[in-house]
């Protein structure tokens, strides 16, 4: 069964990135709070968002799965992104499947990240069948660490970001453990 291009949750529509989503995707990267959470201490790079947009579109083409744009059903706005991809920025983990999420500041503290990430975890386990899923989170990003813990992920220690002088916390969710808690 192919990986779903669209999923709906109680409040969200999760949809694969399309070429006409570039403006919405770039607006997420341009949010200073998003930039600080994902690139702490780094000066804003206006070329980073376009490179990541292209990367994630190519990821869908190459692997048949990837990030979804999160559309808030109440406002019709792009709230952020969520979904699985291979973390190419940590060389020793490129074969793993990372569940990542990020939201624009106006959508924080509403449970949207957890709702979207839970849907992403379920879809990844059902369609991709990994032994585990991971998330890579800056140690200062306590909101994302809390989401990872709500997903049932465990803190597995630290890893080096391959592109930045930055240590990340590695969170993991064993597929077997998830299936036991889902029953």
Q: Outline, from the CA principal axes?
A: globular
Question: Total helix count?
Answer: 6
The CATH class turns out to be Alpha Beta
- Assign the CATH superfamily: Gcn5-related N-acetyltransferase (GNAT)
CATH fold description: Aminopeptidase
Distance between the termini: 22 Å
Strand order of the largest sheet: 1-2-3-4-5
Structural class: alpha+beta
* C-alpha Rg (nearest Å): 15 Å
Q: Low-confidence parts lasting 5 or more residues at pLDDT below 50?
A: none
Question: Strand portion, in percent?
Answer: 25-35%
Largest sheet report: 5 strands, antiparallel
Order of helices and strands: EEHHHEEEHEHEEH
Count the beta strands: 8
The percent of residues in helical segments reads 25-40%
What's the rounded overall pLDDT mean?
Answer: 92
Number of separate structural domains: 1
CATH architecture: 3-Layer(aba) Sandwich
Commentary on this structure:
This protein is of the alpha+beta class and 183 residues long. It has a single domain (8-182), classed as Gcn5-related N-acetyltransferase (GNAT) (Aminopeptidase, 3-Layer(aba) Sandwich). The protein has helices at 22-30, 32-38, 48-63, 112-128, 142-150, 175-182; strands spanning 6-8, 12-16, 68-72, 78-85, 98-103, 132-137, 154-160, 167-174. The strands form 2 sheets. It has a 5-stranded antiparallel sheet, with helices on both faces. The protein has a 3-stranded antiparallel sheet with strand order 6-8-7. It starts with 5 loop residues before the first strand and ends with a helix. The relative contact order is 0.16.
């Amino acid at each position: 069964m192919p990986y779903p291009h669209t999923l709906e949750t109680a409040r969200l529509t999760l949809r694969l990135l399309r070429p006409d989503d570039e403006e919405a995707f770039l607006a997420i990267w341009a949010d200073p709070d998003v930039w600080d959470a994902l690139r702490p201490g780094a000066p804003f790079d206006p070329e980073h968002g376009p490179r990541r947009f292209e990367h994630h579109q190519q990821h869908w083409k190459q692997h048949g799965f990837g990030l979804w744009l999160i559309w808030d059903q109440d406002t019709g706005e792009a709230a952020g992104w969520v979904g699985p991809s291979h973390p190419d920025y940590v060389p020793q983990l490129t074969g793993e499947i990372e569940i990542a999420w990020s939201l624009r500041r106006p959508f924080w503290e509403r449970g949207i990240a957890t709702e979207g990430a839970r849907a992403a975890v379920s879809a990844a386990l059902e369609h991709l069948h990994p032994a585990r899923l991971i998330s890579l989170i800056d140690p200062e990003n306590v909101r994302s660490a809390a989401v990872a813990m709500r997903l049932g992920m465990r803190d597995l220690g630290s890893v080096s970001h391959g592109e930045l002088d930055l240590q990340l916390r590695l969170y993991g969710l064993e597929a077997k453990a998830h299936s036991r808690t889902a029953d």
